Amino acid sequence: MVAVLGVVACSFGETSAGVTEPEAATDPEAATETEGVTEPEAATETEAATETEGVTEPEAATETEAATETEGATEPVLTGTREVRVEAPSHPVPSDAPHAIVHVPARAERETVVFLHGWSGCVRVLANRGELACARRHRRERGWDLLAAARSSRARWLFPQLAFRARDGSPGRFREPAFARAYLHELGLADDPIVLTAHSAGFETALAWLRSDVRDRIRAVVLFDALYAGAHAFADWALERPDRRLVSYVIGQGGTRRENERLRAYASARGVTVGDSLEDDAPVRIVEGRAAHGDLPAQHLEEVLRALAR
Fold it and tell me: How far is CA 252 from CA 90, 249, 259, 260, in A?
């Protein structure tokens, strides 16, 4: 049973200037491809929470919710953007914060874009624009407006709340092989093809999804300066089938740079040409990011989804 906290207005304007820039990631020491890797210093949207009341809730949508035209959903999926709470969340979340944000456009296609956040993530702030608070007693902060990319997409969108406002990239219950499918089923997103995107420490949950029973539904993986470990695992998934695509954005000269070079060497050793831009129709592409670590998703999300739709 899904409980809807509220219907919120979609952010279809330009990404707000001056989005709070999180700290640049520091390299994890001795990162490995196994569970329990050292988590990176991922983006912190705002370190401190205040004790003041007055959460700013996203603006209520004016349109009437209606069932989408997409068939085959487990239960009716409503159009618009909703904050929801589920019976079985992946991580503990305060009672006044959503377990996930789901966006379904009118005439939605049967594809779901999933965004996995890094350290200190809060999906209410990540998805929306304006000044928002993650929950009561948290101070308001500038939204990342990642749903702005939905203006050029007919896919459904899912922002799962992982570790809430914590310097923790662990996958929580997504480590359980059958959990991701059950989670999507509860949200009415069962059986959709998936574009899996991850920022920073979100790579750990992305790896968990690749080891889960939704592995075969994932058609593309996009990493936003998130390849701290798991180069071989990501490459093995991408090279299993010719229709899969892996895009890894990288900046700086730290741990993600080294792991991306490891990815390049591993794929090349298997006879695969690694692309250097979105225009290259290669199964594995390593692309230079054009923004700071915390701004990479907002900068590149729309363009990479457009490239993957070609």
Answer: 32, 11, 12, 11
CA–CA separation, 217 vs 193, rounded Å?
5
Please give the pLDDT value at position 17.
Answer: 34
Closest CA to 20 of 107, 118, 122, 144: 144
Sign of torsion over alpha carbons 214, 217, 219, 222: negative
Tens-digit pLDDT profile for residues 84-102: 999 999 999 999 999 999 9
Residues of the chain with pLDDT under 70: 1, 3, 6-78
Find out whether 88 and 184 touch, Cβ atoms under 8 Å. no
β-sheet bridge partners, residue 303: none
Whose CA is closest to 18, among 142, 112, 166?
A: 142
Q: Which string of DSSP letters, residue by residue, matches 250-266?
A: E-SSSHHHHHHHHHHHH
**Tens-digit pLDDT profile for residues 40-69:** 544 444 333 333 343 444 443 433 333 333
Rounded-to-integer distance, Cα 14 and Cα 145, Å: 8
Q: What is the pLDDT of residue 150?
A: 84
Q: Which fold has domain 3-9+60-308?
A: Rossmann fold (3.40.50)
What one-letter code names the amino acid at 50?
T
DSSP state of 163: S
**How many whole angstroms separate alpha carbon 240 and alpha carbon 219?**
11
Q: Would you list the domain boundaries of the chain?
A: 3-9+60-308
What was the pLDDT predicted at 4?
Answer: 72
Instruction: Name every residue whose Cβ is closer than 8 Å to that of residue 177 and which is 6 or more positions away in sequence.
Output: 211, 212, 213
Whether pTM > 0.70 for this model: the answer is yes
The total of other beta-carbon atoms located within 10 Å of residue 309's CB is: 14
